[in-house]
Amino acid sequence: MKDFKNAIIECVPNFSEGRNMAVIKHITDEIEKIEGVKLLDVDPGKATHRTVVTFVGNPYDVIEAAFQAIKMAAHHIDMRNHTGEHPRMGATDVCPLIPISGITAEETVVFAKKLARRVGEELNIPVYLYEHAASEPYRKNLADIRSGEYEGFAAKILKPEWKPDYGHTFNERSGATVIGVRDFLIAYNVNLNTTSTRRANAVAFDIREKGRQKKDANGKIAKDATGEPLWEPGLLKNVKAIGWFIEEYGVAQISINLTNMHTTPLHVVFDTAAERAAARGMRATGSELVGLVPLEALLVAGRYFLRKQQRSTGVGEAELIRIAVLSMGLDELAPFDPQKKIIEYCMQDATKKKLVDMTLTRFASETAGETPAPGGGSIAAYCGVLGAALGTMVANLSAHKKGWDSRWEEFSNHADKGQKLMKELLYLVDEDTNAYNHIMAAFGLPKGTDAEKAARKAAIDAATVYAIKIPFRTMELAFESFGLAKEMAQHGNPNCASDAGVGALCARAAVKGTYLNVKTNAKGLADNEEVKQILIRSEEMNAACDGLEQEVWNIALSQMK
């Protein structure tokens, strides 16, 4: 199983307690104790006697936080005394995991099953898997599993077809729990230049997957042979929608739940709603996001709208978000703050200072200090960033060059590649320093007994191998950026050939600099097979980079004659 420490998933457990805030606080405290997890929202309901909690983090920490919260809920909530308006089957009624970034739904299922097994075995709570994690097709739907509710589960659990996936004995106090993986739900409203709910509903019926009821030639609802109404499907999959009037703003909206942004992206929902509104004599003036949204949804939208304009998509993250907000009018009713609306940005720890977030002056001062990190590895990685950035700049300027309109996509593709190189190299600027800190931490381990000495040596070796892999990856990316520099020097805007040449110089500095780091860190690991292979490839790239840099340099000079 690959490492998902940089992946993000969301967890939205529903607890059967919505009135006793002290109990709710006990549960959410368990979540907040887990480092690497951020509690985003706590929404208690008195009538439903239910609280919906939302938190995010990497999968390992999220399932640990979920387990501790489920454990605390089992301690405080007695289902024998529970009543409420909302259907429920346990103290923790449902606990979905939702992939956000760096992980697929299928990969998230592995974590859902780990959590479910632990809840079943350690807490003796029956657990059913649902949605993407369902063990049988008839168990995908939450409502089908929950049918009969808490009061009916003592009997239901004895039926062979409803044997729980984990924890096979009914827990009278805690009931049963459903754990699974579902897609992220985006709550999204499109604003119309009308006050008519009926007309907003017409557009909603046009676009939603369910569509509208068919009517016969007499305008009456058409029915099938059994007397059930016939439906005419709408245009968009995984979209639920209805029209309503918002008195606060004096406009009608199409209120939308988008249950799979990969099948139907956010920008497709907006454009389709706008098209159907126009066909009915209205205009979509803007839209709003209710709650949080994954970063990917806005980046994909930004690229889509830039492509429609035949402009380069190889621009920075902030610009893609700005274009998405501008194009969909996400700030029409209220300011749109990416730091508060995008899940990944909400997760960022403001107290954790990154080198790449420093000013250039501060970064230089930090490097010049009395500590060995940041050092040559981080500086070499940043040279690589600058090399890729210059190649990307030339690509973007070439995409917009007057008279080169037919070539915009060619240069947009180059700029996209450059942005990817930059993003990973920026990560490596800080990771090189982190790798050094891992080595120092390993050296600080106790070394009294033979067992402690062996454990310390193993930790030092593992940290050193990692400290070799990081600059080696910088080498690979910087070496790859020579291709971008050459393309831009040879075929890009000739007025920017010198910039491509400087980019190649930066790439060479990055390759040469990280080669020194790899060699230095590998001194004591000559027998390690993985390190041997890294050294062979490092020698090849080091030997080739001078010639590649000179080639780009010569092309750049020829463009100036």
List the helices and strands and how they pair.
Layout: E1 8-11, E2 14-15, H1 21-32, E3 37-45, E4 50-57, H2 59-76, E5 92-101, H3 105-122, E6 127-131, H4 142-146, H5 149-156, E7 177-181, E8 186-192, H6 197-207, E9 212-213, E10 231-232, E11 239-246, E12 251-258, H7 266-279, E13 284-290, H8 295-308, H9 317-328, H10 338-341, H11 343-347, H12 360-367, H13 376-399, H14 408-443, H15 450-491, H16 497-521, H17 529-558
Parallel strand pairs: 5-7, 6-7
Antiparallel strand pairs: 1-4, 1-5, 2-4, 2-5, 3-4, 8-12, 8-13, 9-10, 11-12
Helix pairs in contact: 1-2, 2-3, 6-7, 8-9, 13-14, 13-15, 13-16, 14-15, 15-16, 15-17, 16-17
Description:
- By secondary structure, the protein is an alpha+beta fold.
- The protein folds into 3 domains: 8-181, Formiminotransferase, N-terminal subdomain (Formiminotransferase-cyclodeaminase, Chain B, domain 1, 2-Layer Sandwich), CATH 3.30.990.10; 186-347, Formiminotransferase, C-terminal subdomain (Alpha-Beta Plaits, 2-Layer Sandwich); 355-558, Formiminotetrahydrofolate cyclodeaminase monomer, up-and-down helical bundle (Four Helix Bundle (Hemerythrin (Met), subunit A)).
- It has helices spanning 21-32, 59-76, 105-122, 142-146, 149-156, 197-207, 266-279, 295-308, 317-328, 338-341, 343-347, 360-367, 376-399, 408-443, 450-491, 497-521, 529-558, and strands spanning 8-11, 14-15, 37-45, 50-57, 92-101, 127-131, 177-181, 186-192, 212-213, 231-232, 239-246, 251-258, 284-290.
- The strands form 3 sheets. Strands 1, 2, 3, 4, 5, 6 and 7 form a 7-stranded mixed β-sheet that branches. The protein has a 4-stranded antiparallel β-sheet with strand order 11-12-8-13.
- A hairpin with a 4-residue loop joins strand 11 (239-246) and strand 12.
- Helix 1 packs antiparallel against helix 2 (59-76), helix 13 (376-399) runs antiparallel to helix 14 and helix 15 (450-491) runs parallel beside helix 17.
- The two termini are 55 Å apart.
- The model has no long low-confidence stretch (mean pLDDT 93).
